[in-house]
TrEMBL record:
Pfam families: PNP_UDP_1. This is adenosylhomocysteine nucleosidase. It comes from Herbinix luporum. InterPro entries: MTA_SAH_Nsdase, Nucleoside_phosphorylase_d, Nucleoside_phosphorylase_sf. GO terms for biological process: L-methionine salvage from methylthioadenosine; L-methionine salvage from S-adenosylmethionine; nucleoside catabolic process.
Length: 232
């Protein structure tokens, strides 16, 4: 049976997953609490990484090195980068990149990591299709989109920046960890998937919307993950 690592940046994003686990052993490593156990027979490690790409990458590496996970799923909320993707809708990653990588001074395009073979990290196709079909089953009235996740160490709450992100990277949603987890997964040759529920529109209203809609968005990812874990 596959051992699944699940990373959320914030307590709100993973607490309900931790509560549903059985036979839990908790270990604190690098100031993160790793909850190892199972959910209805599926082996699982759930962890709150903290916010941002560095935390997320460290967390992923620990899951690989010390927990020997077979795959990693990143869950949580995100800002929408498309008009048709509304608050509470779900975005499942086809791939992920880091929008704040800028080595143009050395002749690289924006988002390209110097001296790496890849800077756009492809999500696992089987996991993606499975998540899509589970979504239709458990959240039938929601918009479910598959597309690019663009991550950076920035909360996007500015319409100009949002437009720039859309124009430059053609993303579906933006958040602060997914592509770092994707890069760590790529380097360790394990599959990954990012599943995000939209909490805001990444524009001038983002901060207000985020506070209001975060809980609804997280309810949706929890519902989806509960059903998905059983099918992996
Ligand atoms: N997570 C949720 N909304 C976000 C936004 N607008 N920017 C970055 N990360 C987010």
């Amino acid at each position: 049976m596959k051992k699944i690592g699940i990373i959320g940046a914030m307590d709100e994003e993973v607490n309900r997953l931790k509560e549903m686990m059985q036979e839990v052993k908790i270990k604190n490593i690098a100031s993160m609490d790793f909850y190892e156990g199972s959910f209805e027979g599926s082996p699982l490690v759930v962890v709150r990484s903290g916010i941002g790409k560095v935390n997320a990458a460290i967390c992923t590496q620990i899951l690989v090195d010390l927990y020997d996970i077979d795959l990693v799923i990143n869950t949580g909320v995100a800002g929408s980068l498309r008009n048709e993707i509304n608050i509470a809708d779900i975005v499942i990653s086809t791939d992920a990149l880091q929008h704040d990588v800028d080595a143009r001074g050395f002749g690289y395009e924006l988002g390209v990591i110097p001296r790496m073979e890849a800077s756009i990290f492809k999500a696992d196709n089987d996991l993606l299709n499975l998540a899509k079909s589970v979504c239709k089953e458990v959240l039938p009235s929601l918009g479910v989109y598959t597309g690019r996740v663009v991550s950076g160490d920035q909360f996007i709450s500015d319409s100009k920046k949002k437009e720039w992100l859309i124009k430059t990277f053609d993303g579906y949603c933006t958040e602060m960890e997914g592509a770092a987890i994707a890069q760590a997964a790529y380097l360790n040759k394990i599959p990954f998937l990012i599943i995000r529920a939209i909490s805001d529109k990444a524009d001038h209203s983002a901060e207000m919307d985020y506070t209001e809609f975060e809980k609804i968005a997280i309810d949706n990812t929890v519902k989806l993950l509960r059903a998905l874990i059983k099918k992996i």
